[in-house]
Design goal:
With 345 residues, this protein is of the alpha/beta class. It is 49% helix and 11% strand. Strands 3-2-1-4-5-6-7 form a 7-stranded mixed beta sheet, with helices on both faces. α2 packs parallel to α4 and α5 packs across α15. The longest helix has 19 residues. The protein is globular. The chain starts with a helix and ends with a helix.
Length: 345
Amino acid sequence: MIAWLKEVGRGKRGARDLTYEECLQAAEEIMSLRATPAQIGAFFIAERIKMESVEELEAFVEACRKTAHREALHPDGLDCAGPYDGRKKTFFASFACSFVLAAAGLPVTLHGTDSLPPKWGVTLHDMLKLVGIRPEELPRETLAAAAKRTGLLYVPAEQWCPPLKQLRPIREQLGMRTVLNTAEKLIDYGHSPYLVFGVYHNTVFDRLARLMTKLNYRKALIVQGAEGSEDLFVDRPTRTYLVEQGNASLQVVSPEAWGLDTPVPEVEWTAALQIETTEAVLRGDADMAFINQVLLNAAYRLHLAGRVGSVEEGLYTGKALLENRQAWSVYVEWRDLLAQSYVHR
């Protein structure tokens, strides 16, 4: 580990990127905790200063995947990869959107943990606990069974990839993003060929597009979304990168083009309000800004995965699934399956 630290920690001018093989060795030392806490923290900081290369990111994704439980539950599904540090200022549209997609026949994987730095925002974990679900206490078989029944898999990442839990204290003490903030979102627990991936800065588009190609996703949409999430904005255009067959293209998604441009009310988001708004959207009685945001995201994700022939068709599909409450029914079934499983343990 010391040898790799010397290479990446020589300062801005002297540091060099590790090769894939070198970084895989370093990543495996870190994920196995054979490296000391001091070495791990130093490596994370050095990589942050230097900026991780595509090969280094790929190595950490591979090391995470090797230590994780992965099951081919969604071989034709979509992985929604948002930041594990949660939300503070925006609606968690991806959660409500996932039940629309599942109702449309597109299997979805969501994953997360308790909140992490640097944002320390509201997470899906926080929200699920309010409806009687403690995913970190549920057996994998229970979560998988609910996924097979409803089309939605939720993965508590620190249980399915135990090194993430062991590394949490170091990440909390550092208080800033590390290479794991990217790698943990790409473990692909359900073996999904389609991906929507949130980023905060558009400066990483090209690097991540090359990473998605190396990871062999059939199609990936990199989104500079709300709070660095995979959620398209509904009140302004969103910059995205579509990656397919080794090619990447910039696409700006305009809600105005689809008649969905809607002012978003200022809200102080809590986990309770996130759940309340999610349920209101799925029942069809929420503020139109949040309904339209879910419709926009659902349409683009259905189109990405080839479930509809156009974004316009995706909008009609999503609208129908909200109006006839099929998306609400999927949510209630999924929620009750997991809540009852916890109660009956």
